[in-house]
Write a structure and sequence with these properties.
The chain is α+β, with helices and mostly antiparallel strands. Helix content is about 65%, strand content about 10%.
Length: about 700
């Protein structure tokens, strides 16, 4: 096969392999991107479906209605069917686990929602005043529903993490495919270069070596080779020439003939050299032979060097104008030389890449492959090799690198966009969840606050009709909430407060603030209940009055306490008066006690009159103790605690009782001397009373 055909075939094979591998890599990347996008859309649909399912559930909790229930069921059916249909899209175990958790949590969410809807259905179907189920059970079901709805969020985020992991894995696979493509491409380029060197450069080097041997006078040396290309033909021509030289004679005629033949041979050699030069010129690179010195002095270099460097080949031959080392880029030159010498000393082919500075000042990349030529003694004679311009390839590599970086940037941007969309969606879902949670908490807090206060909270529209009442109205008025909603508040006012209350209501709608007022309302049993009302006006966003909100407090207990306080104050006044009377009465008793004591002393010991006077004296003493108690009570002083012997007091009281009870009643005492001592904060004699 001719050298030109080999070169064309190598170029065509390189292009075919490059296009084939590139198409395979591109198709693989497109397929991975399509799968990633499909999984991303599936995850987005699941997130939207879960968000819509929770929103509908919260709407049903706020306003239980058949429409919300039907919407929830339709959303649930669509979401579960979509999950079952798209389950095969996630082949990884983590994706299947996440989808399984989502399905289980949705079913638990449905069970909790069914419990709540069943409880609401029982409440709406019951005609009794009390709810069909207890409030605690209802609150527990709603809490369980909220917990189940919240539990459905975590597997969705887990599924998104799985998809993100698969995206990263796909990116790694993409990078790996590109690296493999570059490695395969570099392998084919190197293989083609080696093939060219083996089929062209090496035979030329061997041909040159054989020619030098023949030129030194060794006509027995054979240059012939079995190759059928131009180099083989040239070598066989040299063999024929040496055979002819051996048959020449020393005669003038033969010498002239030999000279002519040599001229012909030289002409043939020049033609062959031109052919070889032409062949070398068609090689995509610079062929050279140089010395292994510090300047890489060129013994031969092809004309292609002008295309590569901008300098003619004559400038480099024997370093006529410049050396090859002089155009090598200073950066990395020493490293390249050290590496090349290390490989040459091992008598192995070397390949290096380095930069040169061309005649126009541009920097070009060169790929050089060569090997050392040694003589029979193993001494290094020359270096033969090929230098290929790798600038375009480097530029292509840089462009490919930039394209890869651009692709990575686009992937990162797309990933960032997807992350931003996911984050925005998550943020929106979180905000909606927070808003819903805040709304639920706020509504629950204010509902609990309004429904647990002991006062009645009411809202009245501009026409005076009741639109809201908390459960405390039944305790105060006796009416149920549903019996009062929609009725005018004037229907439950006492007639004495009708006009004044209506007037204050009209002034309140006009923007005038009204103070707290006390009125009476009609109880269901017909009685009047004193209440205290504090109301203010409600305005819409445009500042227009939309009604009045007020707090009605039952003050019947306060009224009773005020009455008792008034009575207590009267008793205190009576006590003060009684204290004054008791003080005067004590003075009178002192006089009676004094004269009685004097009369007792003048009477004999056995006199019955003395016994009567003793009884009178004890009565005076008891009266004096009673006066002291009245005075102590009126002063509201705290008595001092001290030990009190109860036995004498009991005996004295029994003797007193015997006078006032029938004789048919017998009183028996069983008292022990010295027993019955108590620690009391009252005078001893006051126990009698």
């Amino acid at each position: 096969m001719k050298i030109k055909t080999r070169l064309h075939l190598s170029i065509i094979l390189s292009l075919i392999l490059t296009v084939t591998i590139g198409m395979f890599v591109l198709f693989s990347l497109q397929k991975m991107n399509a799968e990633i996008k499909k999984k991303g859309r599936t995850a987005t649909e699941i997130v939207k479906g879960m968000a819509e399912l929770k929103i509908v559930a919260h709407e049903y909790l706020l306003h239980p209605a058949d429409r919300s229930l039907m919407q929830w069921n339709s959303t649930y059916d669509y979401l579960t069917k979509s999950l079952m249909k798209k389950a095969n899209e996630f082949g990884s175990p983590a994706g299947k686990i996440a989808l399984g958790k989502i399905l289980r949590n949705i079913k638990r969410f449905k069970a909790a929602f069914n419990n709540v809807t069943t409880s609401f259905g029982k409440e709406q179907g019951s005609g009794r005043q009390e709810s069909a189920i207890s409030p605690d059970l209802r609150d527990r079901l709603i809490s369980e529903l909220l917990v189940k709805s919240q539990a459905t969020v975590s597997p969705v985020f887990q599924l998104q993490q799985v998809i993100q992991t698969e995206v990263m894995a796909a990116q790694q696979k993409s990078g790996l495919l590109i690296v493999i493509f570059l490695i395969i491409l570099a392998f084919f380029v190197i293989a083609i270069s080696l093939w060219i060197n083996r089929s062209i450069a090496r035979p030329l080097s061997e041909l040159e070596k054989d020619i030098r041997i023949v030129g030194s006078g060794n006509l027995d040396h054979k240059v012939g080779t079995a190759a059928k290309d131009e180099i083989g033909q040239l070598s066989r021509s040299f063999d024929m020439m040496t055979e002819d030289l051996k048959e020449t004679t020393t005669s003038i005629a033969e010498l002239n003939k030999e000279i002519d033949e040599r001229k012909q041979v030289e002409e043939t050699l020049r033609e062959s050299e031109e052919k070889i030069r032409s062949l070398v010129g068609n090689i995509p690179g610079v062929s050279y032979r140089c010395r292994c010195d510090d300047q890489w002095t060129m013994e031969f270099i092809s004309d292609e060097v002008k295309i590569l460097t901008g300098y003619p080949a004559s400038d480099f031959l024997q370093n006529a104008v410049r050396s090859w080392a002089s155009i090598m880029h200073p950066e990395g030159r020493e490293t390249v030389e050290e590496y090349a010498l290390e490989i040459i000393n091992r008598k192995e082919p070397y390949t290096v890449e380095y930069r040169i500075i061309g005649a126009d000042g541009d920097i070009r990349w060169c790929y050089e492959k060569g090997r050392g030529v040694f003589d029979e003694r193993g001494k290094l004679c020359f270096l033969d090799g090929v230098i290929v311009d790798r600038t375009k390839q480097k530029q292509a590599e840089e462009a490919l690198k930039e394209a890869l970086e651009g692709l990575e940037d686009r992937v990162r941007e797309r990933t960032a966009e997807l992350a931003e969309v996911n984050w925005g969606l998550k943020q929106e879902v979180d905000e909606r969840k927070q808003a819903e949670q805040a709304l639920i908490e706020s509504e629950e807090k204010y509902r609990t606050l309004v429904e647990t206060v002991t006062d009645v909270v009411l809202i009245v529209d501009p026409e005076g009709k009741l639109t809201y009442l908390n459960p405390q109205c039944e305790r105060i008025s006796g009416y149920r909430v549903e019996d009062l909603i929609g009725h005018s508040f004037t229907e439950f006012l006492a007639p004495d407060y009708m006009e004044s209350t209506l007037e204050r209501f009209r002034r309140g709608l006009s923007g005038e603030e009204s103070p707290i007022e006390e009125i009476s309302i009609l109880h269901k049993d017909g009685s009047q209940m004193p209440v205290e009302i504090n109301a203010t006006t409600l305005f819409d966003a445009e500042g227009k009055p939309v009604g009045r909100i007020g707090v009605v407090r039952d003050i019947s207990e306060r009224k009773r306490l005020e009455t008792r306080l008034f009575q207590t104050q009267r008793l205190e006044s009576i006590g003060v008066l009684a204290a004054g009377i008791a003080h005067d009465f004590d003075n009178i008793l002192s006089i009676i006690r004094g004269f009685t004591d004097m009369a007792i002393r003048e009477l004999p010991e056995k006199s019955s009159a003395k016994q009567h006077l003793d009884g009178a004296l004890r009565g005076v003493q008891r009266a004096a103790d009673l006066v002291k108690q009245i005075i102590a009570f009126s002063r509201q002083s705290k008595p001092e605690k001290r030990p009190v012997l109860v036995t004498p007091i009991v005996e004295d009281a029994v003797s007193l009782f015997r006078v006032s009870i029938p004789s048919t009643i017998e009183i028996r005492l069983d008292l022990q001397v010295g027993s019955g001592t108590v620690y009391a904060a009252i005078p001893p004699r006051s126990i009698r009373y």
